[in-house]
TrEMBL record:
Domain Helicase C-terminal: 432-576
Assigned GO CC terms: cytosol
UniProt source species: Amphritea opalescens
Single Gene Ontology MF annotation: ATP binding
Name listed for the protein in its UniProt record: DUF3427 domain-containing protein
SUPFAM superfamilies assigned: LexA/Signal peptidase, P-loop containing nucleoside triphosphate hydrolases, Phospholipase D/nuclease
Length: 961
């Protein structure tokens, strides 16, 4: 609904809601106002910020003035933060004979330079809280297109042309910190000269009070002062999310009387919020940025991204002692090379390290980087005990409607498209609504996985009579509007996507609903923190967290209870904490996980991988390699399902070095894919092995060179020659051209195609050169190679065993040993052959089992083992029970031959693209169609359709391996 033509303020239509609505659609924003006060700017700053950061590529031009020195300097400094985001901010300098009384707000939406719609508000309102809300103001609304006003487009063009002409006036200057400093002196002088009772209404509106330390911050400030008096030059402070780490840093910089401050973080949003925080505490300081896009040279406070500043070429532009005070935020990342270079280079008089989660490693490594000086620590539970944060009631609700184990897991997170598809379903929404009605309070903030998910949930709740809204970067509502609706009770639930993770607080929020997996501990605590602010009448925060059947959800108890352990807790410790949380909680707090989730957590440690690893390590007196762990009988399929990869398992055991952790943080998916990449032949593994042997993994290598290395490798390892087809034998007399064509066709081509698990192309071929696509820092290359080699060594050994390639004389060759005794068949734990209804699975070769005897000639290229699931085939002369191991022969519709009256596995894809499998006897009908029949008469017949294909023929049932 469009705004009325006349906005009168007071009890009538106000300008603020109209501005917020217009901001959500505009691609061009043009504002000219006489005065700007912080009280008014704070009301729309978040909306302006969101517009600049949206995908609409908004162009914002804002003009104000120094007329009568009413605009307050704090507001101008905040406008500089918009300028850093790309806004064009200018000031009109008024002389003694000038006046500047404009109040115009223009919002235009265009596409490819074609005008689509526009709103303009022209009247009496400057940017102050009173003028934008309940002050008596008249502002006329001009909208386009307007069927009732055929001249609307012409009027709008006239307004915009006048704005453009205004910008050409000689009195106009770009806003800068230097200009603000000069203006501030005039502003303060005017406050002394002009009596308050003669000032305008705009000027009388007070500037918000400067922030002051809270009690725990005052304690931390005293601890910081004491540590410096004792001679320390570095110190770590741990403060839970929501307890004001950045404000503490600003207060301490002021207490330290720092002349030049360097603030370093690894995320853009942290830098943006830190700038605003420091300016509120140190309003007279000049702010600068040092990022990939912006490198300021004049500043008192420099806010830098570690990715940019951490490069030596950028570091060397500064003197080591350029800054007397340095802040490193999110210090749990400090083991990374970019942080290490930065920490080694700068020599401030004091360095403050900040984190909410010091347990990225075992804690001691982080402390080492601060000379083992832990200055102050208050965790989440401390904040609640100190009555600085609100107590909470946490419900870990089992997400029974979503099968997370079959959503692709890539780069340490779920595939976003598949995840959104699984979450935005009617069944899951009904489950969420039921739990919300049972456990929620008055105002709920819900975190969703995607815009589609948020919109779906809002629509579903509204259909069920619950007033809700969805807010994200492309929604009709702005963030500020949505919070206002939630605050005044017009909506009960606000579904959001990433807009409320940090930096925005509505203390009245009393329910937080987590409807998406959150792999990041920081993100989880930030989302939790949105509801932990104290508010009159709010006794507790209700937290509804939907947790599912995937190893990543083990982070939930770790996020809540991890800080209570002196060292990083084991999986068993975390499961025990989830079972018995009451002994660990502050007064007034409650945690309960659904029994189904507890049972799932138990399954993550049921095979005692941790215990197996610890015992082997004790025996060896050193960390075992992956190959050694495999040789010892460890269940590597379970390891991959529970942890992702070998190196993530090593991290969980606390045995990864800082260098390995740094590599793992950046390249975890590479190690997962290398563990599972398909290998019908050894070629892909051999190609990688030769790259490592010649230290060429991270550099482009000519294809003829790669082929020559591989040829030499096979000749030096004759036991592997049997893996080559007869057309390539004898290899030593094969022409280089034929071998190169083969090597290009096989491993090079396959390494340059997307991996099935992650859809990532790890290598690229360009101009007869092959190169590994992700960037690996030269200093990190040895560690990366060693970690890759450890997995590759195991893959080669595993392949040799499965293919009976004798790596040494102790392993009998095919001629020395009967096939049935040495042959191993692939076992697919993730394919459950459904004896009931179609069941989803993944054809990942995770293990090999000895081939059974009595079934004739078997080949790992065509035969495999899987387990039955269900009881639909439990009947007749040869019943199949739930859990039975089945020997199957892979077939295709072309190779199957006659399948009438045979038991076969049928494969189809579900709506999300995952494979499903079903075991049935096939009966051919007179009309040529096929009926799928179960042995158990309780299951009805099914008619085969075009979505189903034959996958495998049942060879027989096996005794359990």
């Amino acid at each position: 609904m469009s705004a009325p033509y006349l906005l009168t303020g007071g009890d009538g239509p106000q300008l603020l809601p109209a501005l917020r609505r217009a901001l959500t659609h505009a691609t061009e924003i043009e504002i000219a106002v006489s005065f700007i006060r912080s009280t008014g700017l704070n009301l729309i700053f978040g909306d302006l910020e969101a517009a600049l950061q949206s995908k609409r590529h908004v162009r914002l031009t804002l003009l104000t003035s120094d007329y009568l020195c009413i605009t307050d300097p704090a507001a101008l400094k905040k406008l500089m933060l918009l300028a850093e985001r790309g806004a064009d901010v200018r000031v009109f300098e008024t002389g003694s004979a000038d006046s500047f009384h404009l109040k115009a707000y223009i919002f235009v939406r265009s596409k490819q330079d074609e005008l689509i719609s526009a709103d303009a508000f022209i009247g009496s309102s400057n940017i102050s809280a009173k003028a934008l809300t309940d002050g008596l103001e008249w502002n006329y609304h001009l909208d386009y297109p307007n069927d009732a006003d055929s001249l609307a487009g012409q009027r709008l063009e006239e307004v915009r042309q006048q704005f453009k002409q205004l910008l050409q006036r000689p009195q106009i200057r770009p806003l800068s910190f230097a200009w603000i400093e000069q203006y501030q002196r005039r502003y303060e002088h005017a406050r002394k000269v002009v009596p308050l009772h003669t000032a305008s209404v705009d000027e009388q509106e007070p500037v918000p009070d400067a922030p002051t330390p809270k009690p725990h911050q005052a304690e931390a400030l005293q601890a910081l002062m004491t540590t410096r008096q004792q001679g320390w030059q570095k110190g770590l402070v741990v403060l839970a999310t929501g307890m004001g780490k950045t404000y503490l840093a600003a207060f301490d910089a002021a207490q330290f009387n720092a002349k030049r401050v360097l603030f370093v973080a690894h995320r853009e949003e942290i830098l943006l919020q830190a700038e605003a925080t420091f300016l509120s505490v140190l309003p007279h300081k000049r702010v600068g940025r040092y990022t990939g896009k912006q490198k300021d040279e004049e500043y008192d406070l420099l806010f830098a991204s570690v990715q940019t500043l951490g490069r030596m070429a950028n570091l060397e532009r500064f003197a080591p002692d350029d800054f007397d005070y340095m802040v490193v935020d999110e210090f749990h990342h400090a083991a990374a090379g970019s942080y290490q270079r930065l920490l080694a280079y700068f020599q401030p008089r004091f360095m403050l390290a900040l984190t909410a989660t010091p347990d990225r490693t075992d804690g001691s490594d982080i402390l080492r980087l601060c000379d083992h000086n832990l200055v102050y620590r208050r965790d989440l539970f401390d904040g609640i005990n100190d009555q600085q944060l609100c107590p909470f009631s946490y419900y870990g609700i089992f997400d029974s409607e979503v099968d997370y184990e079959h959503i692709p897991w890539r780069n340490g997170r779920f595939d976003p498209t598949k995840l959104s598809t699984q979450l935005a379903t009617r069944g899951r929404s009904r489950h969420v609504l039921k739990e919300w009605r049972d456990k929620s309070q008055a105002r709920t903030l819900a975190f969703c996985a995607s815009r589609r998910h948020a919109d779906y949930m809002a629509a579903f709740f509204n259909q069920q009579g619950v007033p809700t809204a969805s807010v994200h970067t492309e929604s009709n509502l702005t963030r500020s509007e949505a919070l206002a609706l939630l605050e005044n009770g017009q909506i009960q639930v606000l579904f959001s996507v990433d807009l409320f993770n940090e930096g925005v607080d509505l203390p009245q929020i009393d329910t937080v609903m987590m409807l998406r997996p959150t792999e990041s501990k920081i993100l989880f605590l930030q989302q939790l923190g949105r509801g932990l602010r104290l508010s009159p009448g709010k006794e507790t925060l209700a937290v509804l967290d939907f947790v599912g059947n995937h190893h990543s959800f083990l982070n939930r108890p770790e996020m809540l209870f991890g800080a209570l352990f002196q060292h990083k807790p084991t999986r068993q410790q975390l499961v025990e904490a989830a079972k018995h949380p009451s002994d660990l909680l502050p007064d007034g707090c409650y945690v309960n996980y659904d029994l189904a989730f507890i049972q799932f957590l138990d399954s993550l440690v049921v095979d005692k991988l941790d215990t197996h690893y610890a015992a082997l390590k004790q025996t060896l007196k050193q960390r075992p390699t992956l190959e050694t762990f495999w040789d010892s009988g460890a269940n590597l399929g379970q390891l991959r399902r529970n942890y992702g990869s070998w190196w993530e398992f090593i991290d969980e055991q606390g045995d990864a070095s800082n260098d390995e952790l740094q590599i793992l943080e950046q390249h975890a998916q590479w190690f997962r894919d290398l563990t599972m990449t398909k290998t019908t032949k050894s070629y892909k593994l051999v190609l990688l092995q030769t790259l490592l042997e010649h230290q060429a993994l991270a550099q482009p290598t000519a294809l003829p060179q790669l082929a020559q290395w591989a040829k030499q490798w096979f000749l030096q390892h004759p036991e592997w020659l049997a893996d080559l087809p007869s057309s390539l034998q004898p290899l030593d007399s094969l022409s280089d051209r034929v071998w190169l064509n083969h090597w290009r066709k096989m491993p090079i081509h396959h390494w340059c195609t997307p991996e099935q698990g992650s859809n990532i192309e790890w290598f690229a071929q360009e101009d007869m050169l092959l190169h590994y696509q992700p960037s690996v820092d030269a200093a990190e290359q040895p560690t990366f190679n060693a970690m890759t080699a450890e997995i590759l060594t195991w893959r080669l050994s595993q392949y040799a065993q499965s293919k009976r390639i004798a790596a040494n004389t102790d392993f009998p060759s095919q001629s020395e040993q009967p096939l049935e005794q040495s042959l191993q068949l692939p076992f697919f734990p993730n394919i459950k052959i459904a004896c009931g209804h179609f069941k989803t699975g993944h054809a990942d070769v995770e293990e090999y089992l000895p081939a059974p005897t009595g079934f004739g000639h078997l080949s790992p290229d065509h035969h495999f083992i899987a387990q039955a699931s269900g009881d639909s085939m439990n009947g007749g002369k040869h019943p199949i029970h739930d859990g039975d191991y089945l020997l199957l022969e892979q077939i295709t519709p072309q190779s199957a031959g006659s399948i009438s009256n045979q038991v076969v596995t049928i494969e189809r894809q579900d709506a999300s693209g995952d494979n499903q499998y079903l075991l049935r006897r096939v009966l051919k009908n007179i009309d040529g169609s096929y009926t799928l029949r179960a042995n158990n008469p309780d299951y009805p017949d099914m008619t085969a359709d075009d979505s189903m294909v034959t996958f495998a023929r049942l060879k027989g049932k096996l005794s359990r391996p």
